[in-house]
Design brief:
The complex is a heterodimer of chains A (357) and B (186). In chain A, 40% of the residues lie in helices and 18% in strands. By secondary structure, chain A is α/β, with parallel strands linked by helices. Chain A starts with a strand and ends in a 7-residue tail after the last helix. Classes of the chains: A alpha/beta (357), B alpha/beta (186). Strand 8 of chain A pairs antiparallel with strand 2 of chain B, so a sheet runs across the interface.
Protein backbone atom coordinates (compact mmCIF):
# COMPACT_ATOMS: atom_id res chain seq x y z
CA UNK A 1 0.00 0.00 0.00
CA UNK A 2 1.04 3.58 -0.43
CA UNK A 3 0.90 6.97 1.31
CA UNK A 4 -0.19 8.63 -1.87
CA UNK A 5 -3.56 10.19 -2.52
CA UNK A 6 -5.16 10.63 -5.93
CA UNK A 7 -5.52 14.37 -6.51
CA UNK A 8 -6.01 16.83 -9.34
CA UNK A 9 -3.15 19.30 -9.76
CA UNK A 10 -5.42 22.14 -8.64
CA UNK A 11 -6.29 20.44 -5.35
CA UNK A 12 -2.65 19.46 -4.79
CA UNK A 13 -1.68 23.13 -5.14
CA UNK A 14 -4.36 24.21 -2.65
CA UNK A 15 -3.37 21.55 -0.10
CA UNK A 16 0.34 22.32 -0.45
CA UNK A 17 -0.35 26.03 0.03
CA UNK A 18 -2.05 25.29 3.36
CA UNK A 19 0.89 23.08 4.32
CA UNK A 20 3.21 26.03 3.55
CA UNK A 21 1.44 28.21 6.07
CA UNK A 22 -0.57 30.22 3.56
CA UNK A 23 -3.14 32.09 5.61
CA UNK A 24 -4.90 34.24 3.01
CA UNK A 25 -6.35 33.43 -0.40
CA UNK A 26 -7.70 36.00 -2.83
CA UNK A 27 -9.11 35.03 -6.20
CA UNK A 28 -11.91 35.02 -8.69
CA UNK A 29 -13.13 31.81 -10.36
CA UNK A 30 -11.96 30.95 -13.88
CA UNK A 31 -11.56 27.64 -15.69
CA UNK A 32 -9.27 25.65 -15.53
CA UNK A 33 -8.19 26.55 -11.98
CA UNK A 34 -11.49 27.05 -10.14
CA UNK A 35 -10.97 23.97 -7.95
CA UNK A 36 -8.19 25.80 -6.09
CA UNK A 37 -10.57 28.48 -4.84
CA UNK A 38 -13.41 26.01 -4.42
CA UNK A 39 -11.34 23.76 -2.16
CA UNK A 40 -9.91 26.64 -0.12
CA UNK A 41 -13.32 28.32 0.27
CA UNK A 42 -14.41 25.45 2.50
CA UNK A 43 -11.04 24.57 4.02
CA UNK A 44 -9.71 28.02 5.04
CA UNK A 45 -12.69 29.31 7.07
CA UNK A 46 -12.66 26.00 8.99
CA UNK A 47 -9.08 26.71 10.03
CA UNK A 48 -9.74 30.37 10.85
CA UNK A 49 -7.81 31.53 7.76
CA UNK A 50 -8.76 34.29 5.33
CA UNK A 51 -10.56 33.40 2.11
CA UNK A 52 -11.98 36.12 -0.12
CA UNK A 53 -13.68 35.53 -3.44
CA UNK A 54 -12.94 39.00 -4.76
CA UNK A 55 -15.19 41.04 -7.06
CA UNK A 56 -12.56 40.87 -9.81
CA UNK A 57 -9.05 39.66 -10.54
CA UNK A 58 -7.74 43.20 -10.20
CA UNK A 59 -9.23 43.41 -6.72
CA UNK A 60 -7.81 40.00 -5.79
CA UNK A 61 -4.20 40.77 -6.68
CA UNK A 62 -4.38 44.19 -4.99
CA UNK A 63 -5.71 42.52 -1.83
CA UNK A 64 -2.61 40.34 -2.10
CA UNK A 65 -0.41 43.45 -2.11
CA UNK A 66 -2.01 44.48 1.19
CA UNK A 67 -1.91 40.98 2.66
CA UNK A 68 1.76 40.31 1.88
CA UNK A 69 2.74 43.77 3.14
CA UNK A 70 1.71 42.63 6.61
CA UNK A 71 4.05 39.65 6.38
CA UNK A 72 1.19 37.20 5.77
CA UNK A 73 1.65 34.34 3.30
CA UNK A 74 -0.85 34.96 0.51
CA UNK A 75 -1.93 32.81 -2.42
CA UNK A 76 -3.59 34.15 -5.55
CA UNK A 77 -4.65 31.86 -8.38
CA UNK A 78 -6.08 32.58 -11.79
CA UNK A 79 -5.71 31.77 -15.48
CA UNK A 80 -4.14 33.41 -18.55
CA UNK A 81 -6.52 36.19 -19.65
CA UNK A 82 -7.30 37.00 -16.02
CA UNK A 83 -3.63 36.96 -15.04
CA UNK A 84 -3.25 39.58 -17.76
CA UNK A 85 -5.43 41.84 -15.60
CA UNK A 86 -3.03 41.38 -12.68
CA UNK A 87 0.13 42.57 -14.39
CA UNK A 88 0.05 46.12 -13.02
CA UNK A 89 -0.10 44.87 -9.44
CA UNK A 90 2.67 42.34 -10.13
CA UNK A 91 4.94 45.17 -11.20
CA UNK A 92 4.04 46.97 -7.95
CA UNK A 93 4.72 43.80 -5.97
CA UNK A 94 8.14 43.47 -7.62
CA UNK A 95 9.08 47.05 -6.80
CA UNK A 96 7.52 46.92 -3.32
CA UNK A 97 9.34 43.59 -2.88
CA UNK A 98 6.20 41.81 -1.73
CA UNK A 99 6.24 37.99 -1.67
CA UNK A 100 3.03 37.22 -3.57
CA UNK A 101 2.62 33.64 -4.79
CA UNK A 102 0.55 33.64 -7.98
CA UNK A 103 -0.62 30.43 -9.62
CA UNK A 104 -1.43 30.67 -13.33
CA UNK A 105 -3.14 27.52 -14.62
CA UNK A 106 -2.91 28.28 -18.32
CA UNK A 107 -5.65 28.29 -20.92
CA UNK A 108 -5.59 29.41 -24.54
CA UNK A 109 -5.13 33.04 -25.59
CA UNK A 110 -4.55 35.62 -26.88
CA UNK A 111 -7.38 37.86 -25.77
CA UNK A 112 -10.29 35.88 -24.45
CA UNK A 113 -9.12 32.70 -26.22
CA UNK A 114 -10.86 29.68 -24.79
CA UNK A 115 -10.45 26.95 -22.19
CA UNK A 116 -8.30 24.78 -24.50
CA UNK A 117 -4.92 23.83 -23.04
CA UNK A 118 -1.90 25.86 -24.11
CA UNK A 119 1.52 26.99 -22.89
CA UNK A 120 0.95 30.47 -24.28
CA UNK A 121 1.85 32.40 -21.12
CA UNK A 122 5.59 31.71 -21.02
CA UNK A 123 6.32 35.26 -22.16
CA UNK A 124 3.70 36.77 -19.85
CA UNK A 125 5.22 34.99 -16.83
CA UNK A 126 8.91 35.20 -17.69
CA UNK A 127 9.28 38.60 -19.29
CA UNK A 128 6.29 40.07 -17.52
CA UNK A 129 3.39 42.18 -18.70
CA UNK A 130 3.85 44.88 -16.10
CA UNK A 131 5.86 48.06 -16.57
CA UNK A 132 9.42 48.64 -15.53
CA UNK A 133 12.63 46.78 -14.94
CA UNK A 134 11.66 43.75 -12.86
CA UNK A 135 11.60 39.96 -12.76
CA UNK A 136 9.28 37.44 -11.19
CA UNK A 137 10.61 33.99 -10.30
CA UNK A 138 8.77 31.39 -12.41
CA UNK A 139 8.46 27.69 -11.54
CA UNK A 140 7.14 25.13 -14.02
CA UNK A 141 5.86 21.77 -12.71
CA UNK A 142 5.60 18.67 -14.94
CA UNK A 143 3.52 16.45 -12.64
CA UNK A 144 0.87 16.74 -9.96
CA UNK A 145 3.55 15.88 -7.37
CA UNK A 146 5.58 18.84 -8.58
CA UNK A 147 2.47 21.06 -8.47
CA UNK A 148 2.43 20.38 -4.73
CA UNK A 149 6.20 20.52 -4.16
CA UNK A 150 6.73 23.69 -6.19
CA UNK A 151 3.85 25.47 -4.43
CA UNK A 152 5.79 24.98 -1.19
CA UNK A 153 8.98 26.07 -2.89
CA UNK A 154 7.21 29.14 -4.32
CA UNK A 155 6.23 30.32 -0.82
CA UNK A 156 9.80 29.77 0.38
CA UNK A 157 11.46 31.62 -2.51
CA UNK A 158 8.93 34.46 -2.32
CA UNK A 159 9.69 35.00 1.37
CA UNK A 160 13.43 34.44 1.00
CA UNK A 161 13.85 37.01 -1.78
CA UNK A 162 10.87 39.25 -1.04
CA UNK A 163 9.83 38.77 -4.64
CA UNK A 164 6.66 37.64 -6.40
CA UNK A 165 6.80 34.02 -7.58
CA UNK A 166 4.62 32.61 -10.36
CA UNK A 167 3.74 28.93 -10.51
CA UNK A 168 3.11 28.41 -14.23
CA UNK A 169 0.91 25.33 -14.56
CA UNK A 170 -0.36 23.59 -17.70
CA UNK A 171 -4.18 23.44 -17.77
CA UNK A 172 -3.76 19.71 -18.32
CA UNK A 173 -1.95 19.34 -14.96
CA UNK A 174 -4.51 21.43 -13.10
CA UNK A 175 -7.24 19.09 -14.28
CA UNK A 176 -5.36 15.77 -14.28
CA UNK A 177 -5.20 13.53 -11.23
CA UNK A 178 -2.10 11.57 -10.21
CA UNK A 179 -0.91 9.89 -7.06
CA UNK A 180 0.69 12.52 -4.86
CA UNK A 181 2.11 12.91 -1.37
CA UNK A 182 1.51 16.28 0.26
CA UNK A 183 4.66 16.56 2.36
CA UNK A 184 5.05 18.68 5.44
CA UNK A 185 6.72 21.91 4.43
CA UNK A 186 10.46 21.11 4.05
CA UNK A 187 11.57 24.75 3.99
CA UNK A 188 12.68 26.91 6.87
CA UNK A 189 10.56 29.87 7.93
CA UNK A 190 11.96 33.22 6.82
CA UNK A 191 11.95 35.97 9.44
CA UNK A 192 10.17 38.99 7.98
CA UNK A 193 10.01 41.04 11.18
CA UNK A 194 12.47 43.59 9.75
CA UNK A 195 10.12 44.81 7.03
CA UNK A 196 6.52 43.74 7.54
CA UNK A 197 3.88 46.31 8.40
CA UNK A 198 2.44 45.04 11.66
CA UNK A 199 1.89 48.21 13.69
CA UNK A 200 4.53 50.62 14.99
CA UNK A 201 3.63 50.71 18.65
CA UNK A 202 7.10 49.60 19.75
CA UNK A 203 9.20 50.71 16.81
CA UNK A 204 9.70 53.55 14.34
CA UNK A 205 7.23 53.72 11.48
CA UNK A 206 7.80 51.95 8.14
CA UNK A 207 6.36 52.33 4.70
CA UNK A 208 6.25 50.15 1.60
CA UNK A 209 5.71 51.95 -1.70
CA UNK A 210 6.96 52.00 -5.27
CA UNK A 211 6.52 55.74 -5.86
CA UNK A 212 9.98 57.33 -5.79
CA UNK A 213 10.17 60.96 -6.98
CA UNK A 214 13.93 61.10 -6.31
CA UNK A 215 15.99 60.08 -9.33
CA UNK A 216 19.03 58.96 -7.35
CA UNK A 217 16.94 56.96 -4.93
CA UNK A 218 14.96 55.29 -7.74
CA UNK A 219 18.16 54.37 -9.56
CA UNK A 220 19.57 52.92 -6.36
CA UNK A 221 16.39 50.93 -5.69
CA UNK A 222 16.37 49.36 -9.15
CA UNK A 223 20.09 48.56 -9.04
CA UNK A 224 19.55 46.87 -5.65
CA UNK A 225 16.65 44.87 -7.10
CA UNK A 226 18.92 43.70 -9.90
CA UNK A 227 21.66 42.69 -7.50
CA UNK A 228 19.00 40.44 -5.99
CA UNK A 229 18.09 39.08 -9.43
CA UNK A 230 21.77 38.31 -10.18
CA UNK A 231 21.98 36.43 -6.89
CA UNK A 232 18.81 34.48 -7.75
CA UNK A 233 20.26 33.67 -11.20
CA UNK A 234 23.41 32.32 -9.54
CA UNK A 235 21.68 30.31 -6.83
CA UNK A 236 18.17 29.23 -7.71
CA UNK A 237 18.40 27.76 -11.21
CA UNK A 238 16.77 24.33 -11.45
CA UNK A 239 16.50 21.98 -14.42
CA UNK A 240 15.93 18.31 -15.21
CA UNK A 241 18.27 16.35 -17.44
CA UNK A 242 17.19 13.11 -19.12
CA UNK A 243 19.65 10.87 -21.01
CA UNK A 244 21.89 13.81 -21.82
CA UNK A 245 25.29 12.22 -21.05
CA UNK A 246 26.10 11.36 -24.66
CA UNK A 247 23.26 13.16 -26.44
CA UNK A 248 23.97 14.85 -29.73
CA UNK A 249 20.31 15.75 -30.21
CA UNK A 250 18.79 17.67 -27.30
CA UNK A 251 15.04 18.16 -26.96
CA UNK A 252 14.01 21.14 -24.84
CA UNK A 253 10.51 21.39 -23.34
CA UNK A 254 8.91 22.79 -20.20
CA UNK A 255 6.00 21.69 -18.03
CA UNK A 256 4.06 18.50 -18.65
CA UNK A 257 4.97 18.51 -22.35
CA UNK A 258 8.49 17.51 -21.27
CA UNK A 259 7.05 14.08 -20.43
CA UNK A 260 5.96 13.66 -24.04
CA UNK A 261 9.48 14.75 -25.01
CA UNK A 262 10.87 11.94 -22.83
CA UNK A 263 8.58 9.43 -24.58
CA UNK A 264 9.91 10.70 -27.93
CA UNK A 265 13.45 10.41 -26.60
CA UNK A 266 12.86 6.78 -25.53
CA UNK A 267 11.61 5.99 -29.04
CA UNK A 268 14.71 7.43 -30.70
CA UNK A 269 17.06 5.81 -28.18
CA UNK A 270 15.57 2.44 -29.21
CA UNK A 271 16.53 3.34 -32.80
CA UNK A 272 20.08 4.03 -31.62
CA UNK A 273 19.79 7.82 -31.91
CA UNK A 274 21.68 9.62 -29.13
CA UNK A 275 18.94 11.89 -27.87
CA UNK A 276 18.24 13.51 -24.49
CA UNK A 277 15.76 15.91 -22.92
CA UNK A 278 16.54 19.17 -21.15
CA UNK A 279 13.72 20.63 -19.06
CA UNK A 280 14.03 24.05 -17.47
CA UNK A 281 12.18 23.97 -14.12
CA UNK A 282 12.87 27.59 -13.21
CA UNK A 283 11.81 29.50 -16.33
CA UNK A 284 13.16 32.61 -14.65
CA UNK A 285 15.99 32.25 -13.81
CA UNK A 286 16.43 30.27 -17.04
CA UNK A 287 19.10 27.50 -16.80
CA UNK A 288 21.17 29.27 -19.41
CA UNK A 289 24.65 28.18 -18.31
CA UNK A 290 23.83 24.49 -18.18
CA UNK A 291 22.10 24.46 -21.57
CA UNK A 292 25.03 26.39 -22.97
CA UNK A 293 27.48 23.73 -21.69
CA UNK A 294 25.35 20.86 -22.97
CA UNK A 295 24.94 22.45 -26.39
CA UNK A 296 28.72 22.25 -26.95
CA UNK A 297 28.44 18.48 -27.43
CA UNK A 298 25.20 18.64 -29.42
CA UNK A 299 24.63 18.77 -33.15
CA UNK A 300 20.98 19.63 -32.90
CA UNK A 301 18.63 21.29 -30.42
CA UNK A 302 14.90 20.79 -30.95
CA UNK A 303 12.59 22.95 -28.85
CA UNK A 304 9.06 21.59 -28.32
CA UNK A 305 6.30 23.81 -26.93
CA UNK A 306 2.52 24.17 -26.88
CA UNK A 307 2.83 27.69 -28.26
CA UNK A 308 4.51 29.26 -31.27
CA UNK A 309 8.01 29.36 -29.80
CA UNK A 310 8.17 31.48 -26.66
CA UNK A 311 10.85 29.60 -24.70
CA UNK A 312 12.65 29.16 -28.03
CA UNK A 313 14.17 32.65 -27.62
CA UNK A 314 15.74 31.70 -24.29
CA UNK A 315 17.03 28.48 -25.85
CA UNK A 316 18.56 30.44 -28.74
CA UNK A 317 20.20 32.87 -26.32
CA UNK A 318 21.70 29.98 -24.34
CA UNK A 319 23.18 28.00 -27.22
CA UNK A 320 26.60 29.35 -28.00
CA UNK A 321 27.77 26.48 -30.24
CA UNK A 322 26.99 25.89 -33.90
CA UNK A 323 24.26 23.38 -33.03
CA UNK A 324 21.27 23.70 -35.33
CA UNK A 325 18.16 24.90 -33.48
CA UNK A 326 14.70 23.79 -34.66
CA UNK A 327 11.23 24.24 -33.30
CA UNK A 328 8.22 21.94 -32.99
CA UNK A 329 5.05 23.58 -31.75
CA UNK A 330 1.33 24.02 -31.85
CA UNK A 331 -0.52 26.96 -30.26
CA UNK A 332 -3.51 25.38 -28.50
CA UNK A 333 -5.48 22.16 -28.04
CA UNK A 334 -4.65 18.59 -27.14
CA UNK A 335 -0.97 18.17 -26.28
CA UNK A 336 1.33 17.29 -29.20
CA UNK A 337 1.40 13.51 -29.09
CA UNK A 338 4.48 11.35 -29.25
CA UNK A 339 3.70 10.20 -32.80
CA UNK A 340 3.07 13.76 -34.04
CA UNK A 341 6.35 14.96 -32.60
CA UNK A 342 8.23 11.98 -34.06
CA UNK A 343 6.82 12.67 -37.55
CA UNK A 344 8.12 16.22 -37.43
CA UNK A 345 11.47 15.33 -35.90
CA UNK A 346 12.03 12.64 -38.57
CA UNK A 347 11.84 15.46 -41.12
CA UNK A 348 14.11 17.72 -39.10
CA UNK A 349 16.73 14.98 -38.80
CA UNK A 350 16.48 14.37 -42.54
CA UNK A 351 17.41 17.99 -43.13
CA UNK A 352 14.43 20.27 -42.71
CA UNK A 353 15.05 23.07 -40.23
CA UNK A 354 11.80 24.51 -38.99
CA UNK A 355 8.65 22.49 -38.92
CA UNK A 356 5.62 23.57 -36.99
CA UNK A 357 2.08 22.31 -37.20
CA UNK B 1 19.69 0.58 -21.35
CA UNK B 2 16.33 -0.94 -20.46
CA UNK B 3 13.25 0.24 -22.23
CA UNK B 4 9.97 -0.23 -20.49
CA UNK B 5 6.87 -1.28 -22.31
CA UNK B 6 4.33 1.38 -23.11
CA UNK B 7 1.76 2.44 -20.53
CA UNK B 8 -1.58 0.68 -20.37
CA UNK B 9 -4.53 2.89 -21.28
CA UNK B 10 -8.15 2.64 -20.21
CA UNK B 11 -11.18 4.72 -21.20
CA UNK B 12 -14.56 4.74 -19.49
CA UNK B 13 -17.33 6.48 -21.43
CA UNK B 14 -21.09 6.93 -21.15
CA UNK B 15 -23.69 9.46 -20.16
CA UNK B 16 -23.58 11.86 -17.21
CA UNK B 17 -25.12 10.10 -14.21
CA UNK B 18 -23.91 6.60 -15.17
CA UNK B 19 -20.90 6.81 -12.87
CA UNK B 20 -18.31 7.21 -15.64
CA UNK B 21 -16.02 9.53 -13.69
CA UNK B 22 -16.45 7.77 -10.36
CA UNK B 23 -15.54 4.38 -11.83
CA UNK B 24 -12.65 5.90 -13.81
CA UNK B 25 -11.15 7.65 -10.80
CA UNK B 26 -11.81 4.53 -8.74
CA UNK B 27 -9.87 2.46 -11.28
CA UNK B 28 -6.98 4.93 -11.05
CA UNK B 29 -7.16 4.72 -7.27
CA UNK B 30 -6.97 0.91 -7.37
CA UNK B 31 -3.80 1.02 -9.52
CA UNK B 32 -2.33 3.63 -7.17
CA UNK B 33 -2.96 1.39 -4.15
CA UNK B 34 -1.09 -1.35 -6.02
CA UNK B 35 1.93 0.95 -6.22
CA UNK B 36 1.56 1.80 -9.91
CA UNK B 37 1.94 5.21 -11.50
CA UNK B 38 -1.42 6.53 -12.69
CA UNK B 39 -2.93 9.52 -14.43
CA UNK B 40 -6.65 10.26 -14.58
CA UNK B 41 -8.13 12.81 -17.00
CA UNK B 42 -11.80 13.53 -17.46
CA UNK B 43 -13.78 15.25 -20.16
CA UNK B 44 -17.40 16.28 -19.89
CA UNK B 45 -19.82 18.76 -21.37
CA UNK B 46 -21.73 21.50 -19.62
CA UNK B 47 -24.67 19.12 -19.07
CA UNK B 48 -24.88 17.40 -15.70
CA UNK B 49 -26.96 14.35 -16.54
CA UNK B 50 -27.39 12.70 -19.90
CA UNK B 51 -24.49 14.52 -21.58
CA UNK B 52 -21.46 12.73 -22.99
CA UNK B 53 -18.79 11.95 -20.40
CA UNK B 54 -15.53 10.12 -20.73
CA UNK B 55 -12.34 9.71 -18.84
CA UNK B 56 -8.92 8.27 -19.46
CA UNK B 57 -6.83 6.27 -16.99
CA UNK B 58 -3.19 5.53 -17.74
CA UNK B 59 -1.22 3.09 -15.68
CA UNK B 60 2.43 2.08 -15.66
CA UNK B 61 5.21 0.71 -13.46
CA UNK B 62 7.28 3.82 -14.28
CA UNK B 63 6.60 7.53 -14.73
CA UNK B 64 3.75 7.99 -17.22
CA UNK B 65 5.10 9.87 -20.20
CA UNK B 66 2.16 9.98 -22.61
CA UNK B 67 -0.46 12.08 -20.86
CA UNK B 68 -3.02 12.24 -23.64
CA UNK B 69 -3.62 9.21 -25.81
CA UNK B 70 -5.84 8.69 -28.83
CA UNK B 71 -6.25 4.96 -28.26
CA UNK B 72 -6.83 2.65 -25.33
CA UNK B 73 -6.16 -1.01 -24.57
CA UNK B 74 -9.46 -1.36 -22.70
CA UNK B 75 -12.62 0.68 -23.10
CA UNK B 76 -15.81 0.45 -21.05
CA UNK B 77 -18.77 1.86 -23.01
CA UNK B 78 -21.93 2.34 -20.96
CA UNK B 79 -24.34 3.66 -23.63
CA UNK B 80 -24.93 3.63 -27.40
CA UNK B 81 -23.52 7.10 -28.15
CA UNK B 82 -20.26 6.39 -26.40
CA UNK B 83 -19.97 2.94 -28.00
CA UNK B 84 -20.38 4.48 -31.47
CA UNK B 85 -17.90 7.21 -30.72
CA UNK B 86 -15.21 5.22 -28.93
CA UNK B 87 -15.13 1.91 -30.82
CA UNK B 88 -12.57 3.46 -33.19
CA UNK B 89 -10.33 4.23 -30.23
CA UNK B 90 -9.73 0.63 -29.15
CA UNK B 91 -6.17 -0.42 -30.01
CA UNK B 92 -5.89 -3.47 -32.33
CA UNK B 93 -6.25 -6.59 -30.15
CA UNK B 94 -7.68 -4.38 -27.41
CA UNK B 95 -10.98 -5.04 -25.70
CA UNK B 96 -14.23 -3.13 -25.38
CA UNK B 97 -16.64 -3.94 -22.55
CA UNK B 98 -20.12 -2.90 -23.61
CA UNK B 99 -23.32 -2.37 -21.66
CA UNK B 100 -25.58 -4.46 -23.90
CA UNK B 101 -28.66 -3.30 -21.93
CA UNK B 102 -28.27 0.00 -23.76
CA UNK B 103 -26.16 -0.85 -26.81
CA UNK B 104 -27.00 -2.90 -29.90
CA UNK B 105 -24.64 -5.82 -30.37
CA UNK B 106 -22.76 -4.83 -33.50
CA UNK B 107 -19.21 -6.08 -34.05
CA UNK B 108 -18.14 -3.45 -36.58
CA UNK B 109 -14.41 -4.12 -36.14
CA UNK B 110 -12.78 -7.52 -36.55
CA UNK B 111 -9.44 -6.64 -34.94
CA UNK B 112 -10.69 -6.14 -31.38
CA UNK B 113 -12.32 -8.21 -28.64
CA UNK B 114 -15.87 -7.59 -27.46
CA UNK B 115 -17.54 -8.32 -24.16
CA UNK B 116 -21.23 -7.54 -24.36
CA UNK B 117 -22.76 -7.72 -20.89
CA UNK B 118 -26.18 -6.44 -19.82
CA UNK B 119 -24.68 -4.24 -17.10
CA UNK B 120 -27.85 -2.23 -16.34
CA UNK B 121 -29.97 -5.38 -16.07
CA UNK B 122 -27.42 -7.13 -13.87
CA UNK B 123 -27.28 -4.03 -11.68
CA UNK B 124 -31.07 -3.93 -11.36
CA UNK B 125 -31.04 -7.58 -10.37
CA UNK B 126 -28.75 -6.50 -7.52
CA UNK B 127 -31.31 -3.86 -6.60
CA UNK B 128 -29.37 -0.73 -7.62
CA UNK B 129 -28.92 0.38 -11.23
CA UNK B 130 -26.13 2.73 -10.12
CA UNK B 131 -23.68 -0.16 -9.66
CA UNK B 132 -23.62 -1.03 -13.40
CA UNK B 133 -20.22 0.66 -13.58
CA UNK B 134 -18.88 -1.49 -10.74
CA UNK B 135 -19.97 -4.64 -12.57
CA UNK B 136 -17.91 -3.40 -15.54
CA UNK B 137 -14.87 -3.02 -13.24
CA UNK B 138 -15.40 -6.60 -12.06
CA UNK B 139 -15.27 -7.78 -15.67
CA UNK B 140 -12.17 -5.66 -16.27
CA UNK B 141 -10.49 -7.18 -13.23
CA UNK B 142 -11.17 -10.68 -14.57
CA UNK B 143 -10.01 -10.14 -18.15
CA UNK B 144 -6.91 -8.07 -17.41
CA UNK B 145 -5.75 -9.82 -14.28
CA UNK B 146 -4.14 -6.45 -13.51
CA UNK B 147 -5.83 -5.92 -10.19
CA UNK B 148 -7.38 -8.31 -7.71
CA UNK B 149 -10.89 -8.27 -6.30
CA UNK B 150 -9.16 -8.00 -2.91
CA UNK B 151 -7.60 -4.64 -3.85
CA UNK B 152 -10.97 -3.53 -5.19
CA UNK B 153 -12.61 -4.38 -1.87
CA UNK B 154 -9.91 -2.53 0.05
CA UNK B 155 -10.25 0.50 -2.22
CA UNK B 156 -14.04 0.49 -1.85
CA UNK B 157 -13.70 0.55 1.91
CA UNK B 158 -11.20 3.43 1.74
CA UNK B 159 -13.38 5.51 -0.57
CA UNK B 160 -16.85 4.82 0.84
CA UNK B 161 -15.59 4.71 4.45
CA UNK B 162 -18.63 4.24 6.72
CA UNK B 163 -21.31 3.64 4.11
CA UNK B 164 -21.55 -0.08 4.85
CA UNK B 165 -24.60 -0.69 2.69
CA UNK B 166 -23.00 0.90 -0.39
CA UNK B 167 -19.71 -0.92 0.20
CA UNK B 168 -21.57 -4.22 0.32
CA UNK B 169 -23.61 -3.43 -2.81
CA UNK B 170 -20.53 -2.44 -4.80
CA UNK B 171 -18.58 -5.49 -3.73
CA UNK B 172 -21.51 -7.67 -4.83
CA UNK B 173 -21.40 -5.83 -8.15
CA UNK B 174 -17.65 -6.47 -8.70
CA UNK B 175 -18.18 -10.11 -7.85
CA UNK B 176 -21.08 -10.30 -10.32
CA UNK B 177 -18.88 -8.81 -13.05
CA UNK B 178 -15.98 -11.10 -12.21
CA UNK B 179 -18.20 -14.20 -12.34
CA UNK B 180 -20.06 -13.06 -15.46
CA UNK B 181 -16.92 -13.32 -17.56
CA UNK B 182 -16.14 -16.71 -16.13
CA UNK B 183 -19.46 -17.85 -17.56
CA UNK B 184 -18.64 -16.16 -20.85
CA UNK B 185 -15.38 -18.07 -21.10
CA UNK B 186 -17.05 -21.47 -20.83
Amino acid sequence: MTNKVLLKGNIAIAKAALESGCSCYFGYPITPQSEIGEFLSSEMPKRGLGYVCAESEIAAINMALGGTATGTKVLVSSSSCAVALMQEALSYAASDELPIVLVNVMRAGPGQGYIYPSQGDYNQAVTGGGNGDYHTIVLSPASVQECADFTQKAFYLAQKYRNPVILLVDGLLGQMAEGVEINTNPYQEIDNSSWRLDGNKDRTSRKIHSLEPNETALNKHIVEMHKKYRYIEENEVQCEEYMLDDADIILTAFGSLSRHAKAVCNYYREQGVKMGVFRPITLYPFPKKRLSELSLQAKQIIDIEMNMGQMLKDVQLSVLSNAQISFVGKPVGSWLKKEEIINIIDNIIKGGVNAGI
Amino acid sequence: MNFKKEDENYIVCGAGGQGVLSSGSFLAYIFMLDGKHVTFCSSYGAEMRGGAVNCEVNCSDDEILNLQNDKADYIIALNQTSFDKFISKVKPNGTIIVNSSMVQENRVRQDINYIFAPLSELAMNLGNIKVANSIALGILSKITGNFSIETVKQATQNVLKNKQELIQKNIEAYQTGFNYTQKGDN
